[in-house]
Write a structure and sequence with these properties.
Beta Polymerase, domain 2; 4-stranded mixed β-sheet; 29 helices; 6 domains; about 750 residues; Ubiquitin-like (UB roll); alpha+beta; about 45% helix; Hypothetical protein af1432
């Protein structure tokens, strides 16, 4: 908004278009509040102009017309007209409530708060700040309290995008990015397709102007051919539908540039051309009943050959936004692929307006109750946010549970449940009921036993096996490396269970988990204690251990944060030392030696240090500096201390060998299962040696070529859960002879 420095408006602005559209579905007596709201807004916005040069009142009028097109009630239209008077004109909310009623005032206040939210999409990651997390929380709570708030906000954003050309390029890109990352997905989730497609196309126009122009020109160049083929196909189809006794309307369907761009990206990966995008040629068939939808589908498939894998039944399996249609792609006239959507008129109304088609403030409570049931996911969102401890967890649930793709699975009774893509049987169990999740001991998918961390697919029938005597969930379920749960809802329910356990038990369990993780990585708990407390903002060691015990702090995050600190410390300038020389990069990438220059460096084979370890150097007479772990027995027992020098890690650009020992019960396929885990992590495994212990167990020693501590931690955690594994730990060699001068140390396989 800006105040005009000069010329007055050249044309008067009226409310006629809004009233005409609203009168098509609202009683005449409800139009008066719309007229009053327009007069009130016009008076307060007088003298204000937009960046386009138009009188500012043109914006709320345009938003109100979009709201009327969604067929929202008279109070929502009035709120759309008034949505900027509080922020831009200083009108108090009490005055709005007095003149237009409490609901209009509440809508305007909620819209004003949403306008003040800093919607920087770079801050959507909850790891990057709490402020954005709290703001998104308020936004979604406002949506759940009154859906009209978000629908008006979407209309507001759409009109702003239509006039975005008046802003500087930098602001155009920022607003377009917000639209693409936040508002278009929100419109999609609500099923408001007519707004969703236009928001996507307008955002794409400013984010990728050259590609937008390229696709627009391609569509324009093929428009005449496309219209001719559609007209020919429509005439043929109408004739066959009429012969089958089906009363139907057949129309061509407009294509959206951003959706074509997305298809072009997918098709280019498959070496397909622009001409092979199936739904460039697209039609819709409108009928009166559901049975006629399927009858029409049979006529179409009898007329033209269907393309395999290009049929979707969204009538039998509606989308979560209530969208319903039959989608099929056939080989149409001239051998051209032709996409056809078949739906009833009511389905079309829902497809265009989404949840707005059902969110009506009608007389009587029964209809409102039915409407709320049809958008149960909003109610579910409210329930979940009440259970979450903080704003960061709420944003995590929004990102994983709301915006991601979904899968639809069946309960044994045939009920359909929607879950985020990648969800597991445990997520399914916790969605059904918290107690069922806690008591889960196994799962069947389509009648077959599966692992609890198996991803579910659309159409799966899931049966949960429970134990009434179960002691509760396993702490392993919270280990992100193991993939047992994928939703924040399940994770928080498990954390709540462990929080309720005895504090002493959580502290002891947390100590065991921490010591096990740090021992696995070759770190000393006592040395890291103060550092860990600072990293995780704990002032008390027992509180920190208890948090690890109940899952509030994961061992995965401990390894990640400590590794990040080590990397940061290595990048800092080392402290001043007597007669210190400038650090020299020696022996290739990844190593810096202090106090000496132009010497080769090699990794000691006795302890195989990796980035993240504390290290020390030993100066040999002919092989430069050999780098050892600081706790290597060869270094600790070395008599000539003057030959020990300080070294530090530089930039890691290669992999490092780490020796590990695995104790397990012997069985067929054990080594195969271990190597599968290692391969999945994209780690090379060399020098495998297996020793039978005579009691049915085996000891496997091998060398893993890892990129550093974080990858090693993740890999050892995954190996540990392979069936039959008793323990996994990193090993180093014991020293019994003085350090050699010329020859490399022999590789032993004796564990410490």
């Amino acid at each position: 908004m800006s105040v005009s420095p000069g010329e007055p408006a050249v044309a008067s602005v009226t409310i006629d278009a809004v009233l005409t559209r609203a009168s098509q579905y609202l009683p005449a007596e409800r139009l008066d509040i719309i007229r009053d709201a327009f007069a009130f807004a016009a008076r307060h916005h007088e003298g204000q102009f937009r960046k386009t040069g138009d009188p500012y009142i043109t914006h709320p009028v345009a938003v109100a017309e979009l709201v009327a097109n969604l067929e929202l009630d008279h109070l929502a239209i009035a709120a759309a007209l008034l949505h900027d008077v509080q922020e831009d004109c200083g009108v108090r909310n009490e005055e709005i409530a007095e003149r237009f009623g409490p609901r209009v005032a509440k809508l305007v206040e909620a819209l004003t708060k949403l306008d003040k939210l800093p919607m920087n999409v770079a801050d959507l990651d909850p790891m990057r700040g709490t402020t954005q997390a709290q703001n998104l929380r308020k936004m979604f709570l406002a949506m759940a309290e009154d859906l009209s708030v978000v629908l008006i906000k979407l209309c507001d954003r759409l009109h702003n995008m239509r006039t975005l050309w008046a802003f500087p390029p930098e602001k155009q890109r920022r607003i377009a990015l917000e639209t693409q990352e936040i508002f278009a997905p929100l419109a999609s989730r609500l099923g408001v397709w007519q707004i969703k497609w236009e928001l996507e196309d307008l955002a794409f126009r400013y984010l990728e102007p050259e590609k937008y122009r390229e696709i627009a020109e391609l569509l324009a160049s093929k428009r005449v051919t496309r219209e001719r083929v559609i007209a020919e196909a429509s005439a043929i189809l109408k004739e066959h539908l009429a012969a089958a006794g089906i009363k139907a309307e057949v129309t061509g369907r407009a294509k959206h540039i951003y959706s074509i761009y997305q298809k072009m990206r997918r098709y280019s990966a498959q070496s397909k051309s622009f001409d092979q995008i199936y739904d460039l040629l697209a039609m819709r068939v409108f009928v009166d009943t559901v049975s006629e939808c399927y009858h029409a589908l049979g006529v179409i498939h009898a007329l033209w050959r269907p393309i395999p894998g290009q049929f979707d039944d969204y009538i039998g399996n509606p989308k979560d936004s209530m969208y319903q249609s039959l989608h099929t792609t056939v080989v149409g006239p001239g051998g051209r692929p032709l996409e056809i959507q078949i739906r009833t008129w009511e389905m079309h109304r829902v497809a265009e307006y989404g949840i707005a088609a059902h969110w009506r403030y009608k007389e009587g409570g029964k209809q409102a109750g039915r409407d709320e049931e049809r958008i149960a996911w909003l109610r579910q969102l409210i329930e979940w946010q009440r259970d979450l401890a903080g704003a960061d967890e709420f944003v995590e649930s929004v990102k994983t549970d709301i915006f991601h793709d979904q899968v639809f699975v069946y309960t044994p009774k045939g009920d359909v449940l929607d879950l985020p893509a990648g969800a597991t049987p445990l997520d399914f169990a916790y969605r059904i009921h918290t107690d069922l999740g806690h008591q889960t001991v196994g799962a069947k998918v389509n009648g077959r036993m599966v692992a609890l961390n198996s991803p579910l697919k659309t159409g799966d029938v899931v049966e949960i096996l429970r134990s009434r005597t179960s002691k509760g969930p396993s702490r392993d379920w919270l280990n992100q490396n193991l993939g047992y749960i994928r939703t924040a809802h399940s994770r928080e329910k498990i954390r709540q269970w462990f929080r309720k356990q005895e504090r002493a038990e959580n502290i002891e369990r947390g100590r065991e988990m921490l010591e096990k993780e740090l021992k696995r990585l070759g770190w000393d708990v006592a040395e890291r204690q103060e550092q860990l407390l600072q990293l995780f903002n704990y002032s008390n060691w027992d509180d920190f251990l208890a948090a690890i015990g109940y899952g509030g702090v994961s061992t995965n995050s401990i390894a990640r944060k400590v590794a990040a600190v080590i990397e940061r410390e290595e990048a800092e300038e080392p402290p001043e030392l007597p007669q210190k020389q400038e650090p020299a990069k020696l022996g290739g990438p990844g190593m810096r030696v202090l106090g000496v220059g132009n010497l080769l460096t090699t990794m000691a084979r006795c302890c195989n240090p990796v980035p993240g370890d504390q290290i020390i150097g030993y100066v040999t007479r002919s092989r430069g500096v050999t780098v050892h772990r600081a706790d290597c027995l060869n270094i600790l027992n070395e008599a000539e201390r003057e030959r020990i020098v300080e070294v530090e890690w530089g930039t890691v650009t290669r992999t490092y060998p780490v020796s590990i020992r695995i104790d397990a019960w012997d069985r067929v396929g054990l080594l195969r299962d271990i190597t599968t885990v290692v391969t999945d992590e994209k780690v090379n495994m060399v020098g495998v040696r297996t020793v039978e212990n005579g009691d049915g167990s085996v000891t496997i020693t091998t060398t893993l070529e890892t990129t550093g501590v974080e990858q090693l931690s993740r890999l050892l955690a995954r190996i540990e859960i392979v069936r039959g594994i008793r323990s996994v730990e990193r090993v180093q060699e014991r020293r019994r002879k003085p350090l050699p001068e010329e020859a490399p140390l022999p590789l032993r396989r004796t564990a410490t």
